[in-house]
Write a structure and sequence with these properties.
Layout lengths: L11 E9 L10 E9 L6 H10 L3 H54 L3 H26 L1
Antiparallel strand pairs: 1-2
Helix pairs in contact: 2-3
């Protein structure tokens, strides 16, 4: 799924050129005057919106309604993504805790049942790896 930028851009540009002193046979050079307007936002420039309204009455309300619906949709998708990220992080923490507990308990079981070296390595290694990931993760978050 392609992601859009958070800020939608709907530029409305208007260019006008007016020729003055056409220079047709009178020796004056040709001059051109150019005016440019640039508007950026989720809806067209008010002048452009007014022109749409003149062409099709009610279109300004439709365009503004479309922009409002699009914004509501973007907010909804952003909230869904945030909830998914939170759930993913929580599930990762739960599974890491369960895995760590299983490894430490397995090491303890092995140590109690006659394999103290293996049990110590398994339990201590599991505990050390969990602590190092926790500490490194905290440092990266700051």
């Amino acid at each position: 799924m392609a992601r859009r930028k958070n800020q939608q851009r709907a530029p409305a540009k208007a260019s006008k050129a007016a020729a003055t002193n056409t220079g047709q046979g009178n020796g004056n050079p040709l001059q051109a005057v150019e005016m440019r307007r640039h508007f950026q936002g989720p809806i067209p420039h008010p002048d452009t919106l007014q022109q749409y309204e003149l062409i099709h009455p009610g279109s300004a309300e439709i365009i503004i309604g479309m922009a409002a619906k699009e914004q509501a949709h973007r907010h909804q998708m952003s909230n869904k993504a945030l909830r998914a990220e939170t759930r993913e992080a929580t599930m990762g923490q739960v599974f890491a805790f369960l895995l760590g507990t299983i490894v430490v308990l397995s090491g303890t079981y092995a140590a109690v049942n006659g394999h103290p070296v293996f049990g110590g390595l398994l339990g201590g290694g599991g505990l050390a790896s969990l602590l190092s990931v926790f500490i490194i993760g905290r440092r990266r978050g700051k």
